[in-house]
Amino acid sequence: MNKVKDKSKRGWEFTGDKGDFRLQKADRSSYLYFPLVNEGGMMSSVSPKLHGQTTSGHNTFLTPPISVEDLHNSRASRNFWIHVEGKGTWSAAGNSARQNADFYTEDAEEVELEAGFLWHRVSRSSKELNLSSQITSFVPCGNDKVELMKVVLTNNGETQQTLTPTAAIPLYARSADDLRDHRHVTSLLHRIFTSDYGIEVQPALSFDERGHRVNHTSYGVFGVEGDGNTPEGFFPVQEEFIGEGGSLDWPEAVVVNRAPDIIAGTGVHREGYEALGGIRFTTVTLMPGESVSYVVIMAIEDQRMDLEALIGKYGSSSSFDRLLEENKAFWSEKVNTVQFKTGDADADQWMKWVTLQPVLRRLYGNSFLPYHDYGRGGRGWRDLWQDCLALLIMEPAEVRNLLFDNYAGVRIDGSNATIIGQHPGEFIADRNNIPRVWMDHGAWPFMTTMLYLNHSGDMEFLNQEQGYFRDTFMSRCRERDHSLDLKEGSVLRTASGDIYKGTILEHILLQNLVPFFNVGEHNNIKLEGADWNDGLDMGADRGESVTFTSFYGSNLMDISLLLRDLKERTGQKIIEVAEEITILLDTMSEKVDYESISGKIALLNRFYASAPNKVSGVKASLDIDQVADDLAQKAEWIFNHLRQNEWVESEEGGGWFNGYYNNDGERVEGEFAEGVRMTLTGQVFPLMGHAASEDQVPQIIAAVERNLLDEKIGYRLNSQFGGIQQNLGRAFGFAFGHKENGAMFSHMTIMYGNALYKRGYVNEGRKVLESLYQLSTDFEVSHMYPGIPEYINESGRGMYTYLTGSASWLLLTMVTEVFGIKGKLGDLLLEPKLVGPQFDAEGKASIKTMFADRELEVLYKNTEGSAYGEYQISSVLINGAQVTLQRVSEGVLIARAELTSLQAGQCHLIEVELVKGK
Ligand code: G1P
């Protein structure tokens, strides 16, 4: 992988040590956008030319909803116009037809962007006009649905200048659905009010998927000059502002410097037009070097706005500055819950942006940023569980409840609800009635829960009781329950109608046992609707996911080990499960031959018949050891089966794992006459768990390097299959090198890196993670701000920035694998896998993170400069006091009690000496 050539060519550069960065000529890169958001539900995005959008949900867009192409093609932006007396018209945001016409000429303006947690500033200057602007944007933290923008204009000339400023922000004020469904008709609903400070639109009705209803939501754009002066007047109607034949990038009202249509404070209101937050400020004369500032407030409210309160809180330059500082502090504190200090200070700062990403995903879901032009804000089941991985590190206090609530989405057939409600634990029956099961869904909860148990030691969690989800789908969507009365709610009941609850452990067992029997004709688990790769969605009949077969196999083994730990730690000898589930624990009653596909299916059908969307309510008490044995046998069978049947021998020597069978029952991967077909996904789960044997690991690594590593874009998700693969999935309809067809898909690449670290292939794992860092930060090619993208496309561009589950995985991998801050059922296991350049010049590397409710700074000292594999832990000091070392095969254990005895609320230093030796 090529190293980034030269830092100055990187584009952006960090300006301090807090993650703030600067980018010259930011307007010279397309598709750039920055997120501005708060916990109150305001979700904005802003581009270097102040394009983007502002919304609080699918049905409440303040600005017109956009897709990423609109960032450069739409003329609607958060514009701020200046009429310069005697000289003409200028957009302080750079959005005027004239400035666009100058773009490729010598007259193009200088644009600099600065940004940090979570604020955005663009400075622009016009040599011709001797004027400069600095526009700062942020969404104040808290619960108000508000975005703020401060514009500072400076006269850089040697003579005085007279300026007439006009803010012009289109007020779309309705549902995203209305963009292509009666956009005009819905503008007739607009009721447009003016006041002392600006324009407020409260549509009379809302027309969207919820029907025609009286609307209460209100949208406004308000402005003040300096420390609270009211504007002069308003242009509330878009068509009047732009004039006949005009447009938002050359509006008549500004170009001819027309007086405002409505004078401030007259309370005139208009109805039935596309609205505009058009605010005319008083004409001002600036002496040479003098500046003037304006604050623009964009707000969404559930009812008409309390203007006095709004302006009181946000309506002055000084409150803007104060709130900006508060906002910076809020977000910095959030990202600083984890801090890395290695030999590469830039990489450490870059990780701060990665750390922010899981929080952004929690707030935006998978929607509302320009690439994310779909969905209604929710997250899917898979994402729900994986986002918890990062939360366990960043917001650990919240996680227990979250996990517990999420388990309420499991169905008795081991599948789960896929429509996730607004509130934790709320799952909604699919009224569109699309029968679909993602076969990977059952595998993730145990992985996340295991991380939680390792971090907390909270074994009690496994015995806590939770309900199950029920809708009209049963037997993994193969059958419909026509008898169901959804008025009874989406909860599983017993034959007598009581709500049924089972332990969390029972939920986990079901999720992993049912798939074991749900096999296709090659005795691997069926692909069903798709697996992790949402794009493999055309193999529901005969497709099989071999790679998730290995994931489930590893889970079965790890659950078995967990049960043994449970017994050892707590003395628990019995577990209780719904009596129907004993069918799935066949070795304890009537053993099925696992080689027999029909035997497995018959058993599964027996199970489905015994629990047809209801259970008897009777529980069986089982011997914990026998259950553990049953699970281990199943796991072992899977591992042997995969190693014997799914290993692809390469003509070049070695081999790799086949990951899939397609809908024609054909093996997907191998070396064919038309070329090599290989998937990274197929390798990741055998490596991450136990399926790949020790001697298979280096062979897989070699095959990945040979077939999937591309010098330009990193580790591809798959090699080029050619053709559209109608027997596998829509992903192959995408051009090769894009998204789920052969791009560098960060999520899978990081999981690959994680798996290599887990297997002790540290230098190889580091190479994988490093490739992602280099690709993402090579601005000349990736054109993205600090952070990781969902994927890197064929041309090297970083795509779908900010909202990606891969950030959780990178954070997790850095903490638990690279720095080796691992939990072991509540105790702290230190197992560093740091390599040379990660230590600084003095041989030090440190991490600040939470464990056992304590803030810890773990400082590794490798003063001898040993390579990974050569060093071991020789001593550990907590706050300067020696700890008696408890060595385990992986590293060194520090008992939880040792940590909980430390004072809460302050940071404790753990110094770990590394010396040569094995
Ligand atoms: C997205 C989805 C994730 C899915 C993946 C591959 O990845 O969110 O659930 O598994 O595509 O189809 P992400 O954007 O989270 O990286």
Automatic annotation (TrEMBL):
Source species, domain of life = Bacteria
Q: Which InterPro entries match?
A: 6-hairpin_glycosidase_sf, 6hp_glycosidase-like_sf, Gal_mutarotase_sf_dom, GH65_N, GH94_catalytic, GH94_Enzymes, Glyco_hydrolase_94_b-supersand
Q: Which UniProt keywords apply?
A: Glycosyltransferase, Transferase
Every Glycosyl hydrolase 94 catalytic domain range: 330-820
Keyword Secreted applies:
no
Quote the Pfam families the UniProt record gives: GH94_b-supersand, Glyco_hydro_94
Against CDD domains, the record matches this protein to: GH94N_LBP_like
The protein's name in its UniProt record: Cellobiose phosphorylase
Name the species this protein comes from.
Answer: Paenibacillus wynnii
